[in-house]
Design goal:
The chain is of the alpha/beta class and about 190 residues long. The radius of gyration is 16 Å and the shape is globular. Bound molecules: NADP nicotinamide-adenine-dinucleotide phosphate.
Length: about 190
């Protein structure tokens, strides 16, 4: 675990138990096989600019959205229509990185509460062009208590993002959690549209 304020990462690691531990951002990246950038898009850009060489050869998981808030607190899109946050992040990474868009299609409360749902697990969609990243993320999504489903490649990342992504719980899925059959239909719906 890493954070801007390392004491927060330490507190979370303590809460999670003996298999978790806190480190500086640089040490956390250097020691990991898989790096989940659970930070805002602008922060991801800063971290890649600073630590790109540490990322080479690793799986990088990107849950980010092109989202910000205006002065009145209204959610706004921070990238031009049609440009995904995934395309921006992937474009900044060294060529040896295994990039995958994942872990962002549920809102935080649902991600926390819907793990190991019964009788049918809730789906987390992912998108990647990279087979190694796909294998890794499927394992991580299952370990987290969800069902993985590939929505497509990097060109489809925008479907997994807010605002507007048709495969995002807060977008086209209208707050729903979907099981594997529903998720397959949702992926196919756009492809056949
Ligand atoms: N929240 C959701 O429902 C949701 C759903 C899907 C996807 N996402 C995406 O997930 C990402 C994170 O969202 P969030 O809601 O979790 O944001 P958040 O609650 O604001 O948390 C941001 C995290 O980034 C850390 N951070 C900030 N600057 C940093 C730096 N320079 N170096 C290292 N860590 C830094 C913060 O550390 P400190 O704790 O020390 O400040 C904090 O842990 C965003 O890209 C968002 O679009 C969020």
């Amino acid at each position: 675990m890493a954070a801007k304020d390392e004491s927060r990462a330490e507190a979370l690691a303590r809460e999670l138990g003996p298999l978790a531990r806190a480190a500086s951002v640089e040490d956390a990246i250097a020691d990991a096989d898989v790096v989940v950038f659970a930070v805002w898009l602008d922060t991801i850009k800063e971290l890649i600019a600073k630590d790109a060489r540490l990322l080479d050869g690793k799986v990088v998981v990107d849950p980010s959205n092109p989202l910000g808030f205006d002065e009145s607190g209204q959610m706004i899109r921070t990238l031009p229509e049609g440009q995904s946050s995934g395309s921006v992040v992937a474009g900044l990474l060294p060529a040896g990185v295994h990039y995958v868009k994942a872990f962002g299609t549920l809102v935080a409360d649902a991600l926390a509460s819907a793990a190991n749902r019964e009788p049918r697990r809730a789906v987390l969609f992912y998108a990647t062009d990279d087979d190694a990243a796909a294998t890794t993320i499927e394992g991580l999504i299952r370990a987290a208590g969800f069902e993985p489903l590939k929505a497509g490649g990097l060109a489809d990342a925008g479907r997994l993002e807010m605002p507007g992504g048709d495969l995002h719980q807060g977008g086209g899925l209208n707050g729903q959690l979907v099981d594997l059959d529903q998720a397959r239909s949702a992926v196919a719906a756009e492809l056949s549209a």
